[in-house]
Structure formats: structure tokens, C-alpha cells
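dumping this here before i forget
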Amino acid sequence: MLTRLAGVRNGLPLLSALLAAPSLAFAQAPAAPAAPPTEPASAPAAEFSPAPSADAAAAPPPAGAAPPAAPQAPAAATALEPHQPAGNVPFASEPAEAPAVGALDRRFAFKANFGIGGFDPGDVNRYIKSRVPSNSYQTQGFSEMVLLLSFDVSGAYFPVRFFGIRPNLLYLFAPKVLTVQGGESQGYWLHSIAPGLSLDFVYDTRKVARFFASPGIAYQVGWFEGYEAHGLGLELALGTELSFGERRAKGISLALVVRSADLDVSSAPASFDYETPVIRDLNFTAIMFRVGFQVGM
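structure:
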């Protein structure tokens, strides 16, 4: 037993020397040589960093850190011109007006006219006056026929913007009613049909109104109390057209019309009264005011 204890005692110094040797060798190991200097690398591109969360923004700054800079107020906006947005980008306050479409784009047009005017059909008025009894007098109206009414329809073709060809059909009528003593009424009716052709010369300023001059010619037939007359009639219309709607296709026209039509009687009634003046012509010469309604396509 004593022998074993002595052996352990003798081995303790050797064990302590072995344990101290590695630490000594580590402490005495020479330092590694320094790396040679290198050129500084260029700064890497900035990477996207997410916006701080609400918690991070609400957290107080660390002790000793400089307080954050107060946000700067935006620069005062400079005065802008009327109807001009920020950034000095000009724009028109209203859209540019598209050019109006002229008569060239409205090649076809259809019109209906109503007219009223005055005239003097000489032989017809003498005939009416002779029919009033000599021993009576008129209680309503007068014997002369002076009012002429008209209605016509037409279609026009415009090969160019300022010129059109218009065939038409015209109906003219002049009513006359008079009352004599005793309550007896007498009525007379002068009427005529005239197919014709006119030319439209248009002055178009590409605005609402157009101005036109329309000379025309017609073959006219008239009737009165069994008399029938034929002949040519001439017409000149001067006026303006107020256009509206899409492509200015619709319009209302106002015109002053001068007509010349003195028709020779070609047939008379079979019965003949020597006391009644003979009618040799039916005269439709007149000055009229005409209103028209037109639709184009």
C-alpha cells in the first residue's frame, strides 16, 4: 500500500509538466505575417432597405443620439396662370373646336318650304268683281284676290361644296271668300302646280349660317273656274340657312322669293257669259316670304 502511494506521489510532477507544455508552446508561437495592403474596393450599390415599421418609428432614439431633423415645409407654390396646372404644363381651357362640315359632306338634302306673299292676278280679279251683284254690297272681305300661298318639296345634290342642283315640285294656291248682302257667300280658288329645277349657289363660312341664291325655272299649269293655262315660270330665292345637328345636316331656311309666271289660257269653260270679263291669262307673278325645313345625308 505504501509502495503504491509512493509511486503516485512520484508521478505527479511529471503529469504537471506534461499539462503545462502545450500552453507554453501556444504562448510562444510566432504571430502570423500581416496581409499586404490592397486598393479600396468601390462602394457596392445601395440596396433597398424596407421602411421602418411603426414600432421602430415610435421607439425613442438611443441615449446620446442627435434628435431627428424637423421636416421642412414645402416651398410656396408659384402663382399659376388661369387654367394652368402645377408644373407649368399648359393646356387649353376648352377642347379645340373641330372644323364644321360643309355642304360637300352633305351631298344630298331634302327640303319642304311654306310660303306666303302678295300678287295681282289682273283678269281673275276683274272676273271676281263682276260676279258680285250690282244691287248688293259686300259685308265681309273684298273682291280682289291678293294673297298667294305656296308649298313645295325638293331634293338637292351637291357635287361640290358651293353648288347644288335641286329638282322641285311647287303648289301655289290663292283662296278667296266674300259675303254679300243677304248672307250669300261666294268662294273662288286659283291654284297651280309647277315642277321645276333650280340651282343652289351657297356661300358657306363653316359657321351656323349659310347664305344662298337659287335661280330656277318651272313648267307651270294653272286652273281657275274652268280656265286652264300653261307656261314657264321663273323664280329667284335669296336667303340664309341656319344649320344644326350632326354634320350640320338639319337646317331651317328663310328666303325672299320673286316669281314671274304669266300663263296664257289654253282652254276656257264651254258656257260663256257676255257680262263676265274674259280671262286671257292666269298671272302668278308674286313676291313671297318662304320658310323651309331641310334634312341632309
